[in-house]
Design a protein that fits this description.
Alpha-Beta Plaits; binds (2R)-2-hydroxypentanedioic acid; binds zinc ion; seven-stranded antiparallel β-sheet; globular; alpha+beta; 623 residues
Length: 623
């Protein structure tokens, strides 16, 4: 049945937070009593991207009720079509302040606890809480990881030194607050750090690292802690250095669209800021409400706009980075072209904090275009999805801004676990769903183009059914389904996540093979950024089990390598895949990476046990 409602609307995206953070997570515990608010429109250097509110302190004060996140997210991003914040009586400042007050003071979530439904007994047992001993991350086939005995153990003199640099508020030893920073949002990776540091400036980061290097104290750099591979939490007792307090917008060049800001700015706040200037961020992720730009860059995050604007390697113009020994490397250029020697910034894009800590960023932001359309379509088979992608590239060309796919299992999961979303298509035997977004500069031309494309695709049998969002809330609902799959997947109990680059024509084969391998023991989901050849393979079960894992690994890595794919398209290697790098990189490449690591971080203090295999590093540095 054809159900094409051919009406256009402007884009609206719901704001999807990683669940534990929405419930009052790490950001809730960072800088709870902050300096007076600064409106993000005020671009004088040093003004806050996340304007903290004086309304926030002190705890125990009466608070307004928590806001409706989904609706606020829509309002924020819909400002191009006459539903601006101002029309709703909200300013960005109000919005952000309200968010922070919810995060900061939501009383029932102020103490640490793993996300509901995830921290099974198995999970708790699989990680030994006393540091200095073997740790095994559950859901991983890896051997337990020994603490490297060459690292020093934190003592009271260290803490006193950090207090002399960061002040009392910048040095957190409170058990509950440190516990939140020790665990990732899925409750899957858990460290045993005793110390969380909250620097406010590059100079402070530099002093902290210089000291840690001289003492050989291991460090884990942390942003919004929204990663999926255990890269942003400690493995043992590493000191956590969280950049969330460095959240200022430094400048915006509104002729060239170049944003310069500190690393701790939350992506969604940057989006709101640049959208008010008539630009957009070149990347967009489901975790935008929590993730920070420094973390995005350190992990080379891909996301939903990659098909249109490409990778951060292309969009990041400059960086300021603090090296392991405290040296500040100023590469904060805003030039589009600069061919003077090696382009060192690329070493830090995607190296997951193992070579330095990103403290400032300059990034190219594309112009915001006025006309956006979102279509939600179903296809009968995977071949139709592939053909549809090719047809979309040919017919929609310059206006195509997203091409995302999901199988039916994803839709079922989203409908079961996400609040307030509904399947816009009739419940049916469709096996695949595709979300297509177009963004262009001419509303009637763009709309006509998309409509013609969809009608043709239906006639050709590529599309079985579909809708085009007629208003902001429909568009928001479509995006919420796609962006919410990750969040919904952790609600089942246990989730094994793989993030693979595979040639598009083979991409769904591994999902089907995996289904037959795990049989009834687990549910297998396939979704992702089809336009980028990026599959998210999620395997869900009620609890973690070595038997299920044995069906998945090493098969998933061998299969991917056998098809010349990558075992990490966009999530990075982190702890989960540090020992698997050889499936995607040659021994020579891994050796060169290890040499670079040793050159730049000879004491191996930065994010140990992550990214590179122990065998590639020398014994005393690699454990
Ligand atoms: O959770 C996942 O597996 C994928 C998360 C994210 O990269 C997405 O595209 O939704
Ligand atoms: Zn993704």
């Amino acid at each position: 049945m054809a159900l094409l409602s051919l009406l256009s609307h402007s884009r609206a995206r719901s704001s999807v937070l990683r669940e534990p953070l929405r419930q009052g997570g790490l950001r809730a515990l960072l800088a709870p009593w902050a300096p007076p608010p600064v409106h993000p429109h005020d671009r004088a250097a040093g003004h806050a991207c996340t304007p903290p509110s004086t309304e926030l302190s002190p705890p125990g004060r009466a608070l307004p009720p928590p806001l409706d996140w989904t609706r606020l997210g829509s309002r924020t991003i819909s400002s191009g079509v006459g539903t601006s914040l101002a029309q709703y009586g909200l300013t960005n400042h109000t919005l952000t302040s309200q968010r922070r007050s919810y995060w900061t003071l939501c009383p029932q979530h102020s103490s640490f606890g793993p996300p509901a439904g995830i921290a099974t007994k198995e999970a708790q047992h699989s990680v030994n809480d006393s540091f200095g001993v073997q740790r095994r991350t559950f859901g991983s086939a890896a051997e337990p990881i020994q603490r490297n005995p060459d690292y020093s153990v934190l003592n009271s003199d260290d803490v006193s030194y950090f207090k002399s640099i960061l002040g009392d508020n910048g040095v957190v030893q409170d058990k509950d607050r440190v516990a939140v920073a020790n665990v990732d949002w899925m409750g899957k990776y858990k460290g045993a750090s005793q110390l969380l540091l909250l620097p406010k400036s590059t100079n402070e980061v530099s002093k902290v690292l210089a000291y840690c290097d001289s003492r050989r104290l291991a460090v884990v750099p942390q942003g919004g802690n929204t990663g999926l591979v255990g890269g942003s939490v400690p493995v043992h007792d590493e000191v956590i250095v969280n950049l969330g307090g460095m959240d200022k917008i430094i400048s915006f060049d509104n002729v060239n669209g170049i944003l310069t800001c500190e690393a701790g700015c939350v992506l969604e706040n940057l989006s709101t800021f640049v959208e008010n200037e008539g630009f957009i961020m070149p990347l967009d992720l489901g975790a935008k409400g929590s993730c920070q730009i420094g973390g995005n860059i350190s992990t080379n995050a891909g996301g939903l706009r990659f098909i249109r604007y490409g990778s951060l390697h292309g969009n990041v113009l400059g960086l300021e980075v603090v090296l392991a020994n405290g040296t500040v490397l100023d590469m904060l250029t805003t030039l589009r072209k600069d061919n003077t020697g090696y382009d060192l910034k690329h070493l830090f894009v995607g190296s997951e904090g193992s070579l330095g800590i990103v403290t400032k960023v300059s990034i190219l932001t594309p112009a915001k275009l006025p006309s956006t359309n979102v279509a939600f379509l179903s296809c009968n088979d995977y071949m139709s999805c592939q053909k549809l992608l090719l047809a979309a590239r040919r017919s929609l060309g310059e206006i195509l801004s997203a091409f995302e796919f999901m199988d039916r299992q994803c839709i079922d999961l989203a409908m079961t676990h996400l609040e307030g979303v509904h399947n816009p298509l009739p419940v049916s035997p469709y096996k695949f769903y595709v979300l297509i977004e177009t963004t262009g500069s001419d509303e009637s031309y763009d709309k006509a183009k998309l409509e013609a494309f969809l009608l043709r695709s239906m006639e050709d049998g590529l599309v079985a059914d579909g809708v085009i969002a007629q208003d902001i809330s429909q568009a928001s609902n479509f995006w919420r389904i796609r962006e919410g799959i990750s969040e919904a997947s952790v609600k089942v109990g246990a989730v094994y996540k793989y993030d693979l680059s595979i040639p598009v024509e083979k991409l769904y084969d591994i999902v089907e093979e995996m289904r037959s391998r795990v049989g009834d023991t687990a549910e297998v989901l396939g979704y992702g950024h089809l336009g980028d050849g990026n599959l998210h393979l999620n395997i869900l079960s009620s609890k973690y089990s070595d038997n299920i894992l044995a069906q998945i690994e090493p098969f998933v890595y061998e299969w991917t390598a056998g098809h010349r794919g990558s075992i990490s398209a966009e999530h990075g290697l982190g702890l989960m895949k540090a020992e698997k790098i050889h499936y995607s990189k040659s021994p020579e490449a891994v050796q060169l990476m290890a040499s670079i690591k040793k050159l730049m971080d000879p004491n191996s203090i930065l994010n140990p046990y992550k990214v590179l295999p122990r065998s590639a590093l020398s014994p005393e540095q690699g454990n």
